[in-house]
Every structure is written in C-alpha cells, then in structure tokens.
Amino acid sequence: MSRVILQPTGNKDAREHYVDTLVKPVDLLKIKPFISTEEFNHLVELYPSGLVPTWGVTAGVNNVNANKWRKIQPADVTFFSANKVLYSYGFVTFKIHNKLLAQHLWEFNSKGETWEYIYFLDELREHDIPISLFNEIVGYSENFKVQGFSVLDEDKSDALLSYFDLESETAVQPVSEEEYRDIIESFDINILDIEGKTKSRAEQGFLRKALFGNKTIDGCGICGKEYPISFLIAAHIKKRSFCSNEEKLDYRNIVMPMCKFGCDDLFEKGYITVNEGIISVNDKTTTIPLKIYLSHIEGMHCGYWNVDTIKYFDWHRNHHSLSKV
Ligand SMILES: [Zn+2]
C-alpha cells in the first residue's frame, strides 16, 4: 500500500534543494557518473526526458532518517510542507543510497552531513493543504506540526490518499503475487469503503506492474498505437466481475493494455470483439465519428490473442452477442 512521506522544507538547505533539484530537475547525465549501469538504465526507463526530480535526506541522529527512508517504496507520496501548509506532493519512483552523488548535488550541511539517502520523484504538483485539515484527516491533534522527515503508517496514509483520491499515473506500488492473491481472495465488491478502494488500487497496481513492468510507454492491444502508460488501462478481457478467483489469478492472460482514447470503452461495451485474433465490429447503435474510429481498427490483428487468452476473448464475444438478443 502506498505510504505518505512528510518532508518539511522550512530550513534554508531544504528550501534551496526544493528549487535546485526538484522544481528544476537534475539532468540524468549529471547523475550518471555516480551510479551503476543498472541504476542508470532504470532511471532512463523512468525518465525518458532525462530530467530527474531528486530529493535526499541525511542519515539523522542514530540513523533515524535512514531507517525511515528504508520503508520508502515506489508509488509512495511525498508531501512537502512549510508554514503550516502541505504545499506540494510528488510520487516516489526509485531510491538509492549514494553519498558521492549527494555531495555532488548538495555538498554538506553545517554538521558535515550530506543528504545521501536519495529518492527520486515524479508528477510533482502544487496542492495546498492547511496543516489543520491534514491533522483532521489523519486524526492527529490540532497542535501537530510537521517537524521532521517522517513516514506515516498505513491507516493514516490511506486516510489522506483516499481523501484526495491521489494515485500515481505511472509509478506502481510493488504488490507481490502473494499479496495479490490475498486481495483477490478477500475482495468483497459490496464493501466500497476505504479498505475496498485501497484493495482495488492495489489490485490494479499489481496488474499494471505485471503488464507494463518498468515501461513508461506501451502499445494499445486493440489499435496498436503507442501511448504513455497513464493513457493505458490494464483491462480485463473477460469482464472482471464475471471472473472466478482462479481466473483473476491467471493475471498473465486475463488482462491486456487498452487505450483510454476509445478502445477500452469500445471493448467494455461490446462494440468490438476479437474473433480468431481479428478485431471485429458489432452491429450496434453508432454515429459517423464512431464509425470512422471503428473502421480504423476493424480487421486488425490483436497481438494478445493466443492459446492462453482465447477462452477469455471467446467469453467476451459470446457475452456481447447474447446481450443483443
Ligand atoms: Zn487503442
């Protein structure tokens, strides 16, 4: 589950770092000499633009910050605060412990420490939340102030992320196959409370990770066009609500990428089906713009149709042909 990280930026160093390496992201080529090839390749995948919003914390007294930093995972959300306001947030993509890189970016503080517990962010956005509202949402007393780098527990994180409905478009929280199994087996669609929403996010996160890995761009399984993955859905071929738990656990075959520009909805509503690997168009109420869209995809080959997925495509086709009667 995504956690919330609180990052006060009241002091001079933090204010400078916020501008120097976040608002103005760091050129990946500046980072390259300090990291391994593997880390570099991972950052290239995460930041195709080559510009990397970078943050770091010092080890802290008795490693207190380092220990908190160890809990950070991709898709966690960092809120920056100053003057009793959480004024912006961004999603964590990756982290590395690297003293030399930290020295290169930020040098040292007055105690001779550097901000070597580094983490990278994306989708940085301004969003003013008065601390009083924050305290109310997470259940802190009204006198609470953000005084140090901290990571909220799961319940408080859930409360805040659900309240603002915050979810990364690209970073995916790591959900293990075992956790996914637990979610599938304990999921109760009738309970759409915070816990239900959290599980649903984790389920979709797992499926997206399984489908896209670390890619930031992929092709739509219907129209074949390439898009940033925030425009692609990990769409169930057989409608999710009709899938048995066993089918949901067949996650390598039950979902495929479909674009938000129309393919996902057209497939979901049965305007298109896949027959023997070929996209066919159903005879449904339509309009001229829709006909034009459909004419572009009709007859295309669907790369996700194979011996393992055929049963799901057949279910989808039968489901929609029956519903017409
Ligand atoms: Zn598409």
Structural overview:
The structure is a single chain. This protein is of the alpha+beta class and 325 residues long. The chain has 2 domains: 4-163, ph1033 like fold; 177-324, no CATH class. It has 14 helices and 14 strands. The chain has helices at 12-23, 28-31, 37-46, 64-69, 99-106, 131-138, 154-163, 177-186, 194-212, 245-249, 251-254, 263-268, 288-297, 310-324; strands spanning 4-8, 26-27, 51-52, 54-57, 77-82, 85-97, 117-130, 150-151, 217-219, 226-228, 232-236, 255-259, 272-275, 278-281. The strands form 5 sheets. A 6-stranded mixed sheet has the order 4-7-6-5-1-8. The protein has a two-stranded antiparallel ribbon with strand order 2-3. A hairpin with a 2-residue loop joins strand 5 and strand 6. Helix 8 (177-186) crosses helix 9. The chain is elongated. The structure holds zinc ion. Zinc ion (ZN) binds at residues 220, 222-223, 225, 259, 261, 263.
